[in-house]
Design brief:
four-stranded mixed β-sheet, three-stranded antiparallel β-sheet, Glutaredoxin, 39% helix, alpha+beta
Length: 90
């Protein structure tokens, strides 16, 4: 499993998944990431008040899953999975 990510041009990517364990859409993203061989850094918004505050401050919403890509939020599990499949190289 890789925890170091690059885009298709070889530039490093910082990825952090804001999520909580009981969210089925979050689990969907985690399952897809695992199939791709990615171990995404995670911030649990239910267990970590600072993670929730950062998610709301940056993204404007408490919605999860949210993948921060170089500090910018990407919402919707299908969009996150598509990004991981097409734009990220381990």
């Amino acid at each position: 499993m890789t925890t170091t990510f690059r885009n298709r041009q070889g530039q490093p990517l910082s990825l952090v998944l804001y999520m909580f364990e009981s969210c089925p859409y979050c689990q969907r993203v985690l399952h897809a990431a695992k199939k791709l061989g990615f171990e995404l850094p995670r911030r649990d918004t239910r267990r970590d008040p600072a993670a929730l505050a950062e998610l709301v401050k940056v993204g404007g919403s408490k919605q999860v899953p949210c993948l921060f890509i170089d500090g910018k939020p990407l919402y919707e599990s299908a969009d996150i999975i598509r990004f991981l499949q097409t734009e990220v190289v381990a």
